Amino acid sequence: MSGDFTFEILAQAGAARRGVLSTAHGAIDTPAFMPVGTAGTVKAMLPESVSSTGAQIILGNTYHLMLRPGAERIAALGGLHDFMNWKAPILTDSGGFQVMSLASLRKIDEAGVTFRSHLDGSEHVLTPERSIAIQDMLDADITMAFDECTPFPATAEQALHSMELSMRWAARSRQAFRQRPGYGIFGIVQGGTYPELRQISAAALRANGFDGYAIGGLAVGEGQETMFHILDETVPALPADRPRYLMGVGKPADIIGAVMRGVDMFDCVLPTRSGRTAQAFTRHGTINLRNARHAEDKAPLDVECACPACASYSRAYLHHLCRCGEILASMLLTWHNLRYYGDLMRGLRAAIGSGTLGDFVAQFDDAQARGRAAA
Amino acid sequence: MSGDFTFEILAQAGAARRGVLSTAHGAIDTPAFMPVGTAGTVKAMLPESVSSTGAQIILGNTYHLMLRPGAERIAALGGLHDFMNWKAPILTDSGGFQVMSLASLRKIDEAGVTFRSHLDGSEHVLTPERSIAIQDMLDADITMAFDECTPFPATAEQALHSMELSMRWAARSRQAFRQRPGYGIFGIVQGGTYPELRQISAAALRANGFDGYAIGGLAVGEGQETMFHILDETVPALPADRPRYLMGVGKPADIIGAVMRGVDMFDCVLPTRSGRTAQAFTRHGTINLRNARHAEDKAPLDVECACPACASYSRAYLHHLCRCGEILASMLLTWHNLRYYGDLMRGLRAAIGSGTLGDFVAQFDDAQARGRAAA
Questions:
Q1: Does this complex have an ipTM over 0.85?
Q2: What is the pLDDT of residue B101?
C-alpha cells in the first residue's frame, strides 16, 4: 500500500460501508460516484460546477487522453489536474475497456494490445507497463491495472482464459506502478458471470496486494439480477479494509443494490450522457424533457433539488431548450443529473452512518414506484 | 415617450456620449453592447455568467421565438425574462431582418410579410401590428419597429421604395405600441448607402416621436468606410437626447468608430458565434484556437482578462477542447468573448467619462497593430 493513500471505514450497515478514502489530492467520502471526464472535461460542465454537485473525484480515460492530446503533452503541461483545472482526486481507467470498444484492428497477445486510433487510424500499443506509465504521466491519484474486459456472453473457457490473461497483466501492472505517497493502484476482478472464476481472480489480486479492488466486466448486458448475484459471490472475497469499485455502474437502483452489497465506488456516463439527450433523473424516475407534455409546465424538474436547473427554470423552458438543441440544455440537465447522483450518494452515506439504510432504500423504491404509477 | 423610460447623458467627448438608459427591468450604462439571445438563451451561457461579463441587456429574436416556443406560450409562462431567467432589460428585434434571411417563400406587400417557417414549413404572417403584439407578449423592455432591412447592394430607387415602406410600417408600429412605464419603442432608420434617403428616414421617424432611434441596414457588406460615412451623415439627424442603436454591429473596431460618431447601443452575434467556432477576441487581435501553435502553450488566452477561461486554463487546454469539439470549448470561449466585449464597452465608457477617449482609441489601435505584427 502506498504511503498516505488510506481508507478508513467509519460505519457499516450490513455489508454496506461508509468510509473515507484519502489521496494526494484530497479525501473522498464513500460510497462515492465518480463523474466521467472522458477527454479531460466532464462534458458541458465547468469543474467548479462538478464540485458543486457533491462529486469529490472524477474519472479520466487513458484511451482518449493518450490519443488526444497525448499523455506526454499533459505531463509537460503539469498533469491532468492542472490541465483541466480539477484540483481534487482523479481516477484513470487503464484504457483496456475502450481499446476493445472504440479502436479498430485490435490484436491482443500476451504483451498487450496493438490497435488503430478511432480518430486518425494511427497505430498504437497498450501494454500493462505502457498503461501504467500513461496514468503516471496523467498524475492519476488512482491508477487502474490494465485488463481485458471479458465480453458478455462468454463461455466458461473464454472467461477463464480472459481472466487469467488479465491476472498476469494485473501482476505486471502492480509491478510497473511507481509508489508515491497519496497515490494508489487498484486491481480489477474479472471472470464474467462465473462465481468460481471471480473467486480465483480475487485471490490472484489479493496475492499482489493492491490499494483497492475493482469489479470489472459487469453492466455489460448480463442484467441486474446476475450482476447482484456476482457481487454477492465476489465482494466477500475482497479484503474488507480496502475500497471496492464497481466499474461502469450505473443506474441509481444498481448503485443502491451494490452499496448494500459492500461496494464503495462507482462511475458511469449515464448522468452526463443523459444530460445531453434530454433525459433527467428525478426522485420519481427518469423524465424525457423532449416530451410535449412538458411544453407548458411551469413546475421545476424536481422541487426537492437545489441544482440551478431546478432552482431557476421551468420544465417548459428546459423542454424548449431540448427541442431547439441548445447547448444550455446539455449544461443544465448534466448539472441536474450529476446533482441527482451526488444527492443519492450523500443520502446513502448519511443512511449508513445513522443506521437508516433500510428506510432510505424503502423511500427510494416507493418514490420510483409512485413515479411509474403517475406516468 | 413612455413614462420612466429615460435616457440621461452623463458625459460627452466629441460626438461620443456616456449615458444611462433606464427601463422597467433596470438601467443600462451606455455605450452598451447587447449579447444576442436568439432562442431564449445566449448560447452556451448561463444568464448569471452573461451578467458577469458586464452585459446589462440582451437581445431576443422575435422571429425565432414566435416560431418556437411561440409568443403566446412565453406570455403564459410569465414573459421572456422569467422564461429564460434573465431579470435585466431585454430588447427584441422586430423579426423583419430574420424573416428575410431565414424564412422561405416570402411574400411582401403593404400589409406585411407572409412566409414559411424554416423549421417546419408552416405559414406565418408578420405585420407591424403583429410584430409589436409579439414583442409585447415577450415583455420586451425595448420594442423595435417592424421594418424591411434594405438589401445591399440596392439601387437608389430600390432603397427609396424599401425605406418608404419601412417608414409607413414604423408609423403603424408606433401606433400599435402599448405605452407602459419603463417600456419603449425604437424606430429604425433605413435608406441603404444613400445619405439623402437616410435623412428623409430620420425625419420621418422623428415626426413619430420614438423613444430611441436605431440605424438599420448597415454591416450588410458595404464595408467599414461606407458604414462610417453613413453614420456621419445619419447620426446628426437623430434627436440628441434619445439613445441611438446601430443594429448588428459588430467588430470591436466598428463599435469604437461608431461610438466616436455618437452611437450608444450595439448588438452582434460575433462574440457568441465566434465562441462556438474556436475564435477568441483579445487585445492583440483575434486568435484561432484550433491552430496547432497553441497545442503546447501554457499561457492564458489573454493575461489581462479576468474571465474563467483566462483565469484557470491554458491555451493548450482550450486548443484541446476545440479540437475535440467539446461543449466546454463553446462555454469558455463564449464567456471570454462576451467578457472582451464587456471590457471594451466599460473602457469606452470610462474613457468618455474621463476625457481620455483619444488615448483609449490609440492604445486599442496600437495593441491590435502589435498583435498583427507578432502573428
A1: yes
A2: 87
